[in-house]
Specification:
mainly alpha; 6 helices; globular
Length: 177
């Protein structure tokens, strides 16, 4: 396990952007597998591989790049590593970034699932508030710890590890018709 971590660290040092994006996409995929197998109890014979691939593509092309970029912007907006700075970063993250990001995630997944604009708007109206409230139960304490203890280049990975559970919920919510 230690060797795997050292390899990850070496790759992160050499290719930080690529590793962050691959990590995000892979862990969104893991979240979907958990959703299908543990929450929805589909069983391997009924696992929707196409859905997992769609969710991974959202991770690779949306979640990884957007959150990775956001953390860089946030570090410029709120400078410092104090407890106060971590609290300010969490507040800006959760009040300014999270609501739009969550809405975009749900809309993108709806579009990839073939929903019409009207169906996507209806699904967003039905699921957004519940998902945002759930977000506020989980993410503020995670983000305070993340912003206070974790270096910038590891924040996306830390968030994505915690997000395996969140992604399981979110992919279930996004794919529930």
């Amino acid at each position: 396990m230690a060797g795997l971590w050292r390899s990850y660290q070496a790759l992160m040092s050499k290719y930080p952007w690529t590793v962050q994006i691959v990590t995000a996409g892979s862990l969104v995929g893991v979240g979907d597998v958990i959703s299908q197998q543990l929450i929805e109890r589909r069983g391997l014979a009924h696992h929707n591989v196409q859905r997992t691939a769609k969710m991974m593509s959202i991770g690779f092309f949306f979640v990884g790049p957007v959150i990775g970029s956001w953390y860089k912007v946030l570090d410029r907006l709120v400078v410092g590593g104090s407890k106060s700075a971590a609290m300010k970063k969490m507040l800006v993250d959760q009040l300014c970034f999270a609501p739009g990001f969550l809405g975009a995630f749900l809309c993108i997944s709806g579009a990839l699932n073939g929903l019409t604009v009207e169906e996507n708007v209806g699904k967003l109206k039905r699921d957004y508030t519940d998902a945002l409230i759930s977000n506020y139960y989980i993410w503020p304490p995670v983000q305070i710890a993340n912003f206070y203890f974790i270096p910038l280049h590891h924040r996306l990975a830390v968030v994505q590890i915690v997000a395996v559970g969140w992604n399981s919920y979110l992919t279930w919510k996004a794919n529930k018709m």
